[in-house]
Amino acid sequence: MDVQRVIEGVLAGRTRQISRAISAVEDGAPQAPELLKALFERSGGAHVVGITGAPGAGKSTLTDHLVLLLRGAGRRVGVLAVDPTSPFSGGAILGDRVRMDRHFTDPGVYIRSMATRGTLGGVSAGTYDAVTVLEAAGFDEVIIETVGVGQDEIDIVNTAHTSIVVLVPGMGDDVQAIKAGILEIGDLLVINKADRPQTARLETELAMMLDLAPSDGAWRPPVVKTVARDGEGIDDVLEAIAAHRQFLSSDERGYLKEVERCRHRIRELWKAAAMERLLPSLLSDEELESAAERMARRQAEPYSLIEKLSKRFNS
User: Fold this and answer.
1) Which pTM does this prediction carry?
2) Per mean pLDDT, which range of 154-158, 170-174, 298-302 is the poorest?
3) In this structure, are 245 and 272 located in the same domain?
4) Which residues constitute the domain of residue 303?
5) 96 vs 224, which has greater pLDDT?
6) How confident is the model at residue 148 (pLDDT cuts 50, 70, 90)?
7) Same domain as 286, residue 270
8) CATH number of the domain within which 107 lies
9) Same domain, yes or no, for 156 and 227?
10) CA geometry: angle at 82 spanning 70 and 192, to 5°?
11) Among candidate residues 112, 118, 170, the one with its CA nearest the CA of residue 142
């Protein structure tokens, strides 16, 4: 890879070079750090919106209509659709991306599927760096659609400026509303498929949850009803996103949010670097294999091994 050519192409907004850069950071290519170092100072200009929720909630359809309206307003939009990893190829199944096929020929829209590759939390390991690439390429808005998630897969809150949780009436969300986890990270709650008869009940449950949730009174997540299939309510979602963006721009809230995002990223990079460099020196492949075989035969338990490794690390 000609790193300088890719950097110049990304900064010029060329689709092929953007794709090459994201592939490099997603695959952990040796050139990835050099790319990101060069692009980072040109990043930070986009508003990052995360869309999360259970499988079948209509996240892709909602994203598709949001892109349509944003393009109508003249905004350049990048979309990162995180799909489950294929057990056969190791890549993304592309189910989310194909639902947005009407944007493929629009030069103002870039859509990329990213595989989870075993990463928990609803996003892939390279999502944050892919956002950096898209920001450096000059996109005004970046939308991250997470893989279908449960109650505690909430990594999107550490990546997005505005997090949207999509719920569907009749799918058990009225029960989920009173549980800790995914609903608590939403800056905006969207009830999709709001033409269903259970909508009023879900809306009431969410209102009760918001009333009980601890808050400093500064921002109360709005509840917006949509029928994304028909494009209904999408304008209201955009208005709510704009309101939250305005909220973040006051009293340094946006800056503090960015500091939190950066703090999380530094920790993640440090943990990855520490694992890559320290683990092989503490535990060889041969020792790991031997320990696993003894453990499988119930001739040894793993806890003593961990204690042994901890002593090596502290010595």
Assistant:
1) 0.85
2) 170-174
3) no
4) 266-314
5) 224
6) low
7) yes
8) 3.40.50.300
9) yes
10) 55
11) 112
